[in-house]
Amino acid sequence: VSKEEVNKSDKRKELDDVIKRFRHTQVEESISVAETLDNWKEEILNSFTWINDRRVSNGPCEGKNNYVKKILSNANGMSNFQRARNRILYSQNKYETYTMNEHTDRIKRIGNPRGAYKKNTK
pTM of whole model > 0.70? Predict the structure, then answer.
């Protein structure tokens, strides 16, 4: 089935028929499915819409969110928000170019050095 046929077909009528069939059964679970389909009818119908050769979906947003979670997970969390933000933006904008002198602000935390490592000797 082509995109044009999907956009031109009467999906609303077909979905209403499915909901009607689920409602008129004696099975309680089927009636519950009919209510769920009825509540989400517009969202379900929107999922069949094609715009610029792509179906409407929140998949790209979910992919970006998952990618950010993986970066933070691999780093075991980041205590410096500015560095975390820069790392995420840098990794997500693959067509951007950067120079070393672009940012003059220092984002490294200023504090005391960690000190010498002391072994426990017994």
Answer: no
Integer Cα distance of 84 and 82 in angstroms: 5
What SS3 state is found at 54? strand
pLDDT digits (tens, 9 = 90+) for 72-89: 888 777 777 788 888 888
Q: Where are the domains of the chain?
A: 3-55, 59-92
Q: Residue 93 CB: number of other CB atoms within 10 A?
A: 10
Taking the alpha carbons of 75, 76, 81, 85 in that order, is the dihedral positive or negative? positive
C-alpha torsion sign, points 17, 23, 26, 30: positive
The CA distance from 25 to 3, in Å, is 33
Residue-wise pLDDT tens digits, 7-34 = 556 888 899 999 999 999 989 999 999 9
Distance between start and end Cα atoms, the chain: 76
CB 82 within 8 A of CB 107: yes
